[in-house]
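Bench log. Compound arrived from synthesis this morning; before running ITC I wanted a structural hypothesis for how ribulose-5-phosphate sits in the protein. Inputs:
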Amino acid sequence: MKNTLIAPSVLAADFGNLQRDIEMINNSEADWFHIDIMDGVFVPNISYGMPVLEAINKHAKKTIDVHLMIVDPDRYIKTFADLGANILSVHYEACTHLHRTLQAIKSEGMKAGVAINPHTTIDLLEDVINDIDLVCIMSVNPGFGGQSFIENTYAKVEKLKALITRKGATTLIEVDGGVTNKNAKQLVEAGADVLVAGSFVFKAENPTQTIQDLKTLTNF
Ligand SMILES: O=C(CO)[C@H](O)[C@H](O)COP(=O)(O)O
């Protein structure tokens, strides 16, 4: 029996009713809060920053999974630890010394994640996979919610799963972008452990039920 985790992306929440949407996640079968931080440089969009995460952290009762889409993320590792992040993912493409960055994240008491863009090959993680707690495979080009899922993601998940098994690592595989009830099961069959879903959850008529449906669909 699988234990697939569902992480609603707060990027798609209603910011005018943020506390309501946080409580919805608290009271649902969702496992994590997924928090997207964008700087307008690494990606062509600016999302939200520290004060909003501080507000979320006051109410959130589940794991806080922060995805940094920013250049030079080392500058903010301690800041995000202080703001309550439990998992901090940096982009492979944004790090010059990825191994050092992972050590710095762990030294602040957080789990260390690496996100990879659609064009970045899994092979580049080979020498560092045993140091990574979570790999976030981007199944859209990062920067915006509501984009279409890139089909090549299934093959990337399979390839990453094989690498993790071969290296005896305990790394979780997360998929982020365009996740819906159409691709969720196949992603888990390919090896995904965590599914991030933004628009599919928050634009649904009944977000709580949608989360429950995703859980049912992916735990078989
Ligand atoms: O990282 C992201 C965008 O860069 C979002 O988490 C992702 O796009 C999820 O949103 P959606 O489910 O609407 O695609």
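What the model suggests: DSSP finds eight helices and eight strands in the chain. The two ends are 5 Å apart (CA to CA).
ITC booked for Thursday regardless.
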